[in-house]
Amino acid sequence: MLDGADTLDVGGTVDEKEIENVEAADTEQVYELGYLLSPSLSEESVLEEVKHIHSCITERSGTVVGEGHPKFVQLAYRMEKTVAHKKQVFETAFFGWIRYAASPAHAEDIARLLKDKEHLVRFLLVKSALDTPLPSRTPRAVAPKRKPEVPQTLDEAALERELEGLLKE
Q: What does the domain layout of the chain look like in residue ranges?
């Protein structure tokens, strides 16, 4: 459950004051929690779910040091989750992430709590480091557009000479 993963390219913020507090605690590890929330939630409900995730972390002595607010995204593939004995299929979701510091035992407790969340489609909890840069969007290099070549206009005599030259070869 707690293993490495690629990062998804979304923006976020880091609280520098909280980072200083985390660096002072020797027993804490830094974790990143990436999560997908159900697309059926309203904007207000998404914010409530995020607050609940925050409270799960802080109630277990965790300290939030960074966050990427949930954004509505198209999923790369369909995901299924069974809720109340009903299979639900998701092709879109709200993606967000939270970087926090907690003891390893508390991180396991947080993961157990999140497994039972009805509106949480999926989540991934990975160990991180405070000096790991936050993901950011970088623009892709775009090749300059080529101008279409303008065909030469030849008069009839020049066209005849070109044809004769080609036929002789």
A: 13-128
What does pTM read for this prediction? 0.61
> By CB neighbour count within 10 A (0-12 exposed, 13-18 middle, 19+ buried), where does 113 fall?
middle
Decide if pLDDT at 133 tops 70.
no
Q: Which of 8-22, 103-117, 118-132 has the lowest mean pLDDT?
A: 8-22
Mean pLDDT value of segment 136-148:
59
User: CA-based Rg of the chain, rounded to a whole angstrom?
Assistant: 27
Query: For the chain, where are the E strands, in sequence order?
Result: 13-14, 29-37, 63-83, 86-102, 120-128
Q: For residues 12 and 9, what is the distance between their CA atoms, to the nearest angstrom? A: 10
CATH number assigned to the domain covering 13-128? 3.30.70.60
